[in-house]
Amino acid sequence: MKSQLAISALGLFLGIIRPTNAAYELLDEFTSDNFWNGFEFYSGADPTGGTVQYVDRIAANKQSLAGSLPNINNAVYMGVDHISQAPNGRASVRVSSTKGYDHGLFVVDILHMPGGICGTWPAFWLLGSGTWPANGEIDVVEGVNSNSQNLMTLHTSAGCSMNPVQKMTGNMTSTKCDSGGNDNTGCQVQDPSPLSYGNAFNQNGGGVFAVEWTSQQITIYFFPRNSTIPSDLPTGQSKANSAVAPNPANWPTPSAVFSGCQIDSHFQNMSMIFDTTFCGQWAGQQDVWSADSTCAAKAGTCADYVKSNPSAFADAYWAVNSVRVWQDS
Questions:
Q1: From residue 217, how far is each of 14, 27, 213, 280, 317 by CA, in Å?
Q2: Tag placement on the chain: N or C end, fewer CB within 10 Å?
Q3: Buried-exposed string 188-198: b where 16+ CB fall within 10 A, e elsewhere
Q4: 168 has a pLDDT exceeding 90
Q5: pLDDT band, very low/low/confident/very high, at 195 (cuts 50, 70, 90)
Q6: How far apart are the C-alpha atoms of 216 and 218, rounded to whole Å?
Q7: d(Cα 105, Cα 247) in Å, to the nearest integer?
């Protein structure tokens, strides 16, 4: 996928499937034929202080930063400027779902992510409405610089900590979700799989991430491509079968399980977001940059590298097969 990409312009289409008589009913299904009808562009200042310029729909279309990839399964494409010097920040795309959700099963099939590249800070996440972090944040896919393992994190208002003893494959590195003070780490789990993020993820053809959000807990699954992706999960661009309801109870052990506080008090009205920022409050911290030997060897600071090396970001793009949301019947 590193070669020249053929990018089709954005289009608007309608498409929502509402099956019945299942424990989980498909509420929303987004593929390349209707994705841009369910997601909107954000073009304001980066809340994390990144070396980035988020562009609106018109600019994204003009600069070929968003659309679809006819030569890669017609996947939804969200990229960054990899041609120009960027003294004021590199052009990129941040989109969020036009709808907010309360509870559900959120499944995203990703062919390619922007991770593993020095200076990048990509994420697929869910964000609650209002002033952060009042209604919560769920980071499903996230990492910085040359990271090779996915980090899954919850951010909340005060009074939420997680039980570290869970049946999961990941390693819980922080149990305090409260992110309202000076420490914004949140409660965090690292996926042990080297296929969960960055270059290895892309070389393996991507994979499927699923988030089950109930009143009791928030559970995150990762299924690498060509692995045991559950048979009740549709993949690719194919439409979901309304007669088949996904049942996470029958799936393999999840990557992360978050339980231990009142979930419904901290997570409400959440939208789905894809973005790629650069540097900022995490990737751009000098101690973080300096600790990454791969990146530190390229430039003295993250910002200097991002502004001056456009070709380094040719592979900093999302290629997404589908996003689906199920809710209780």
A1: 32, 21, 6, 30, 31
A2: C
A3: bbbbebebbbb
A4: yes
A5: very high
A6: 7
A7: 10
